[in-house]
Design goal:
By secondary structure, the protein is α+β, with helices and mostly antiparallel strands. It has one domain: Alpha-Beta Plaits (2-Layer Sandwich). The chain is built from four helices and three strands; from the N terminus they run βααββαα. It has helices at 13-24, 28-37, 68-74, 78-91, and strands at 2-7, 42-50, 53-61. Strands 1-3-2 form a three-stranded antiparallel β-sheet, with no helix packed on it. Strand 2 and strand 3 (53-61) form a beta hairpin. The longest helix has 14 residues, at 78-91.
């Protein structure tokens, strides 16, 4: 399982919400295909407002969970490229680059 908590640019909140609706609607088939190809059985995202600003909490479950982000980053599939570019735009991060801090650790 992979769990990622990543800041969302303040000026991208509404665009991110629209993007997630596309993933659950008109792009659901392509989203499901990407998850299947990259070994995810569950791929959920939550939005949260925190005192430090908006964040997205993403859960990846399945055999490909630990390598999912790297695999999206290096994929040349057109949907995966669109996902990568969208994620980079919303979060101001380079997908596939080392994260600025450690991954969350399950405690209980």
């Amino acid at each position: 399982m992979g769990l990622v908590v990543v800041p969302l640019k303040e000026d991208k909140v509404e665009a991110w919400k629209s993007w997630t609706k596309k993933l659950a609607g008109e792009k659901k088939e392509a989203f499901d295909d990407m998850n299947k190809r990259l070994g995810l059985e569950r791929h959920d995202a939550w939005f949260a407002e925190t005192p430090s600003g908006p964040v997205v909490v993403v859960l990846h479950e399945g055999p490909g969970a630990e390598t999912f982000m790297q695999n999206v980053a290096k994929s040349d599939n057109s949907f995966d490229v669109w996902m990568k570019e969208s994620i980079e735009d919303f979060h101001g991060m380079k997908l596939g680059a080392p994260l600025p801090g450690p991954m969350p650790v399950k405690m209980i």
